[in-house]
Amino acid sequence: MRKPDLRPASARKHSVFRTVKAVMWSFVGLRTRGDYEQDVAQLSPLHIVIVGLLAVFVFVGSLILLATWVVGK
């Protein structure tokens, strides 16, 4: 088991792709404990929240567009 990265969030490595990947896996609900612990140690909580909110807006917007497309036909 890796030790968590106790450095401030500003000093951690930031990867947009890794953050998006972690948020998408969280949406699905399938995540191994090791991957979760690695994400906690390496990713910034602020970035996770921002990417999560953006993902929610995209998901809800997609559902609205799909519903209007289906009803419009």
Which key phrases capture this entry?
73 residues; mainly alpha; 3 helices; 70% helix; elongated
Summarize the structure.
The protein is mainly α.
Describe this structure in words.
By secondary structure, the protein is mainly alpha-helical. It has one domain (14-72). It has helices at residues 16-28, 33-42, 45-72. α1 crosses α3. It is elongated, with a radius of gyration of 16 Å. The termini are far apart. The model has no long low-confidence stretch (mean pLDDT 83).
How many structural domains does the protein architecture include? 1
Q: Could you tell me the number of beta strands?
A: 0
Secondary-structure element sequence? HHH
User: So what's the overall shape?
Assistant: elongated
Low-confidence stretches: none
Mean pLDDT: 83
Most strands sheet: none
Topology diagram in text:
Layout: H1 16-28, H2 33-42, H3 45-72
Helix pairs in contact: 1-3
